[in-house]
Amino acid sequence: MAGDLRGLALEKAELLSSHLKELLSSGQGYVRARFGVDLGLKPELYPTWVILSTAAAGLLLLISLSWAAVCGGLLAGKKRGSPVTHGSSRSSSSGGGGEPLKAGFAKTAKPEEQKKKNKKKTVEKVPQAAFTEPSNHSESVTTRAGVHLTP
């Protein structure tokens, strides 16, 4: 009975490996036809265990990346960090608890300040001259638009 199970498992592994080799060959043919790149792989030369272990590793990587994306997406909506009170000396003198602030508040203000700085820089820029000054007044001047000006 154990020999039958081992033979059946070996037969299924060979069948799966042959399907994966065919898939790899057709994918390699597609890449060669579509992009003109020869990958230089010969799937028929690789042993069964290499094909199966590579497929298992790829599947495990795909599942782990999917799991990380789903869990990361669920965690992104939650608040990170604990609320911070607004000054301990003020809360003790007024008798009430401090006003809770979000921990990431300071980080959201920085991009807005950066945008304001960028706007100021664009307004403060001095426009460059439309044409260059000639070294000799008898020469003609060409503007950026390609118009020739003569004095």
Report on the architecture of this protein.
Residues 76-151 are annotated as: Disordered. The protein has a domain at 12-59. The radius of gyration is 35 Å and the shape is elongated. It has 4 helices and 4 strands; from the N terminus they run ααβαβαββ. The protein starts with a helix and ends with a strand. With 151 residues, the protein is mainly α.
Give me a quick take on this structure:
The chain is mostly helical.
Identify the overall geometry: elongated
- End-to-end Cα distance: 106 Å
Radius of gyration: 35 Å
In round numbers, the mean pLDDT is 74
Beta-sheet strand percentage? 5-15%
- Measured as a percent range, the helix fraction is 55-70%
Q: Please report the total strand number as a whole number.
A: 4
Number of H/I helices: 4
What labels describe this entry?
single chain; about 150 residues; mainly alpha; two-stranded antiparallel ribbon; two-stranded antiparallel sheet; 4 strands; about 60% helix; transmembrane helix; nucleus; transcription coregulator activity; transmembrane
